[in-house]
Amino acid sequence: MKTYTLVAVVAPDGVYPDAFIDYWGEIYLANPFIRARGVLFESFLLAPTELLQACAQAVAPTEPLGLSPAQRAIQRSLDRLESEQQLALPLDQAAVSMTLRSAA
């Protein structure tokens, strides 16, 4: 288990600047993995970059992920269109050939 040195931006009176809280608050709220691990916002402010890195490493896949369901549906549609286009080409060639024969 890794340990981290906690470094924070704290004003001399022990209060975080509003801009610091706003910036990291948006990032904290946008990362469900941090909250799912039970990290409170006050704790997150003590070492936000270290905690983000730790969560990213913990959830990073060790193997490549497959396509998402939406991506699989799009891939099926593209495959179907490609096969239809490949079928249409011989049919078009056959139609041209038949037209040329009937014209002769």
List keywords for this structure.
104 residues, mainly alpha, rod-shaped, disordered N terminus
Number of strands: 0
For the report, how would you describe the main beta sheet?
Answer: none
Low-pLDDT runs of 5+ residues are: 1-7
Tell me the strand percentage band.
Answer: under 5%
Structural class: mainly alpha
Give the helix proportion (percent range): 55-70%
How many structural domains in the coordinates? 2
Radius of gyration: 29 Å
Distance between the termini: 83 Å
Order of helices and strands: HHHHH
Q: How many H/I helices?
A: 5
In round numbers, the mean pLDDT is 76
Shape by Cα distribution: rod-shaped
Describe the structure.
This protein has 104 residues and is mainly α. It folds into two domains: 18-59; 65-104. Helix content is 67%, strand content 0%. It has five helices and no strands. The protein is rod-shaped.
Task: Give a short summary of the structure.
It is built from five helices and no strands.
Write the SSE topology.
Blueprint (H helix, E strand, L loop, with lengths): L17 H12 L2 H5 L4 H6 L1 H12 L9 H35 L1
